[in-house]
Amino acid sequence: MLPFASGVQATHDPRSRVHPRLVKVGDPVRYELKSESNFAPNWTVAIQVSVINDDGSVGNVISVMSISVQTLSAGIPFLLTEMTFSPGIYRIDLNFFDSVGAPLGNYFEYVEILPRTLEIDLGLSRGVVALGQTFNVRVENQGTREIFYDGQYGLERFREGRWTPVMPRIGAFGKKILLGAGFAGLCQRVRIPAHAGAGRYRILKRISYFIKRAIKGKTVSETFYARPGR
Question: Please, is 76 exposed, middle or buried when counting C-beta atoms within 10 Å of its C-beta (0-12, 13-18, 19+)?
Answer without folding.
Answer: exposed
